[in-house]
């Protein structure tokens, strides 16, 4: 199980992976309740008082089959991937080339709001500059690009910090 931000930017998601003739992924929405706590949004919603309780509930409901993903290894230093040869079915592990990342394009200069001159066009036809306001609809995918971290993410961070502090004090 992996607890992560939800795609709507307002909720969280628990993603699970199990093996059944290949990988089976499931995603469960977790929303924060106005009166505090969280709800696992399934057919019969499961109320939980904390994010830790969300994970505990899923472990309990699955009789321990689902377990939280704990990263015990260091982060990878190279991008690797597995590919299959269509002719013989052989699978191989590849390491992607580690070329430097391309530089981000420079932002256009700020334009005076009173000026009526249009922004200069980019020489590349596939690059566009967003010049209109982004509607604040929660379903608009562009909304996520301009928002600061969601309150759920901040709550998650605060909860994790509190748990780490409690572990440190119990170990001393």
From TrEMBL:
Span list, region Disordered: 85-146
Name of the protein: Signal-transducing adaptor protein 2
Taxonomic lineage: Eukaryota, Metazoa, Chordata, Craniata, Vertebrata
Biased composition (Pro residues): 99-108
Source organism, top-level taxon: Eukaryota
Any one Gene Ontology molecular-function term assigned to this protein's record: signaling adaptor activity
């Amino acid at each position: 199980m992996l607890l992560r931000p939800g795609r709507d930017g307002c909720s969280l998601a628990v993603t699970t992976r199990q093996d059944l003739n290949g990988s089976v992924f499931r995603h469960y929405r977790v929303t924060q309740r106005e009166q505090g706590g969280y709800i696992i949004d399934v057919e019969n919603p499961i109320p939980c008082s904390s994010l830790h309780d969300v994970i505990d509930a899923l472990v309990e409901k699955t009789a321990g089959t689902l377990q939280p993903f704990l990263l015990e290894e260091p982060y990878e230093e190279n991008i690797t991937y597995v590919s299959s040869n269509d002719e013989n079915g052989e699978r191989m592990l590849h390491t992607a080339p580690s070329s430097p990342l391309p530089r981000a394009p420079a932002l256009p200069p700020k334009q005076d709001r009173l000026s009526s001159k249009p922004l200069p066009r980019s020489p590349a036809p596939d690059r566009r500059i967003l010049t209109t306001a982004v509607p604040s609809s929660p379903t608009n995918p562009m909304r996520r690009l301009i928002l600061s971290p969601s309150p759920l993410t901040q709550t998650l961070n605060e909860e994790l910090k509190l748990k780490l502090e409690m572990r440190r004090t119990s170990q001393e």
